[in-house]
Amino acid sequence: MGCGHGxxxxxxxxxxxxxxxxxxxDNGCGLLNSLAAEVLGALQGGRSSSVAFCVISQVEPxxxxxRGWVSVYGAVAAMSEHEMAVLLSATPMEGAGELQFExxxxxxxxxxxxxxxxxxRVCAGIARRSNAQLDxxxxxxxxxxxxxxxxxxxLRAQCFEYERRDLVLRSLRSMNxxxxxxxxxxxxxxxxxxxxxxxxxxxxxxxxxxxFVDMAERFHLAATLENPMPxxxxxxxxxxxxxxxxxxxxxxxxxxxxAIALSYFDGEPTKLSARERQIAQLLANGYSxxxxxxxxxxxxxxxxxxxxxxxxxLEITNRSDLTRKYSELGL
Length: 331
What we know:
With 331 residues, the protein is of the alpha+beta class. It has helices spanning 11-17, 30-43, 81-90, 136-143, 145-172, 200-207, 209-223, 274-284, 289-296, 300-314, 319-329; strands at residues 51-58, 66-72, 75-78, 95-99, 109-117, 120-128, 178-183, 188-194, 234-235, 238-247, 257-264.
């Protein structure tokens, strides 16, 4: 199979300035780096004419979650985007195969294998010069790599999950029914740990992910004020209990992250709007309608209108009932 793309000289650059994989690519995911190191390690030991490579592409690959590494004489360097694109387009979806194009200067024949590991597609292989003999032992290691790497990937993923959980729980100090991590850069829920068998917390917060992220971030900002005002943060049956700023931890690919502790109410979810929840929390915490109007920059008449809606929706008639209902529903 021919390919018209020449990927340029790699061998010299890798040999002169390639760092060890374990200490390189600080912005990369630790799990991917670790898995790539194992894959490349399994392919080492061939003849000096061979070049080992590994490309890991996660589900729905983008520039951020497709990574590649090339190893020559034990030194490791990141693969260029062009090289990764060529390999991903030419590599069979599963099994082993041989390709012919230039991955590194003078190396124009590839022996590759592609397999799945923990929702990641892994392309691994070796490149050789057309006139060089390929070490049979290296080929055997390559063809036997898929089941070994799959088991290794599962183990690595499990350990990585424990590391994430430990980081989040230490930051939050405790949890109720679930906890999650928000990626504030991408504005999405990055990770969820739900203790409930029905996964109710995960289901509710993912039903409208954008709204939940905005709501949880406002809760966090309100809680960090020197004189914080009450701020309700609930969606469906789920209520935000507390938050913790994780910074940019390596466990979450160095994105700006916020840990959230969640509680779950088993009764029927309330149908209160975000503003109605906010007013309910102020009133339940002893603020008058005048105070609530000043805090929220609304008129007192507007607050009274919201209070009537609250009473109707919650089927109550006075402030004491509102306080009781607020506690029962975890608003």
